[in-house]
Design a protein that fits this description.
Helix content is 57%, strand content 0%. By secondary structure, the chain is mainly alpha-helical. The chain has one domain.
Amino acid sequence: MKVSEAINLADKYAGSPIESELKYRWLQQIEDIIYKEVILTHKDPPPQPAPVLRYDRELLCPEPYSELYIHYLNAQNDLMHRDTRSFENSASAFATAFSSFADWYNRTHSPQSYAERIDI
């Protein structure tokens, strides 16, 4: 999914309009989380992608897991507008989608094989 697709779908389903600056910021936040918490924990990770500044940039999560971006944008928007009920639904949908992506990534990529030395 490209940045433009995520933004357009989030706009289509959002109850309240989302400012463009916020959408880019939130997409960057979730991209950083995905890269640091999922991708970097595996062997031979790709280089960190460029910042989310262009509409044509491809996002990290492939189909069918890319729906997590729309859920994340909607959850952030609901939270900003203090719509608790919508936020709970959006956050739950995001958590499920993120978990599905992380599970798939963990099944299909070899984990890092290092242990950290602990001095006592």
